[in-house]
Amino acid sequence: MINLARVYDKNKAGSGIRILVDKLWPRGLSKADLKVDNWVKEIAPSDELRKWFGHDPAKWDEFKLRYFAELDRNPGTPNFVELCKGKEVTFLYSSKEDRFNNAVALKEYVEKKIPGR
C-alpha cells in the first residue's frame, strides 16, 4: 500500500516506511522533525522537468509522460520499486498542491510496476 502525505501536515503523518521523494529538502524542517526513513532524491523529477511543470494542472498529463520516461531511464528506479514491493510505504512531499505533484505521479508509476497493486 502506498500512502501520500505532505511533510507540513501533522495530521497526515503517514505510516509504514516514510520516504521523502522530493529533490530538495523541505524548508523549515529539520531531519528530526520530519522523521523520514529514506530520502530518495535521485528518484525525483529532474530540475528541468520540475521547473517546466510548475504544478500547472494543464501540464499534468505531459508532466507524467516525461517523468515516467525519466524513471524508465533512471538506474535507481528498479531498486526503488523493489523497496516499495510488499510493504506499506508513505511518499512524503512538500508541495502545496496535493493533486498535481511528483509524489502522486510516482505512486501511479510504482503501482503499475508492482504486480497485484
Summarize the entry for a quick read.
With 117 residues, the chain is an alpha/beta fold. The chain has one domain. The chain has five helices and four strands; from the N terminus they run ββαβαααβα.
Helices and strands, in N-to-C order? Answer: EEHEHHHEH
Query: Span from first to last CA?
Result: 8 Å
Question: Low-confidence parts lasting 5 or more residues at pLDDT below 50?
Answer: none
The helix-and-strand class reads alpha/beta
Name the helicity range: 25-40%
What does this structure look like?
The structure is a single chain. With 117 residues, this protein is α/β, with parallel strands linked by helices. The chain has one domain (2-113). 38% of the residues lie in helices and 14% in strands. The chain is built from five helices and four strands, in the order ββαβαααβα. The chain has helices spanning 31-34, 47-53, 60-73, 77-84, 102-113; strands at residues 2-6, 17-20, 38-39, 89-93. It has a four-stranded parallel sheet, with helices on one face. Strand 2 (17-20), helix 1 (31-34) and strand 3 (38-39) form a beta-alpha-beta unit. The longest helix is centred in the middle third of the chain and has 14 residues, at 60-73. It is globular and about 35 Å long. The model has no long low-confidence stretch (mean pLDDT 91).
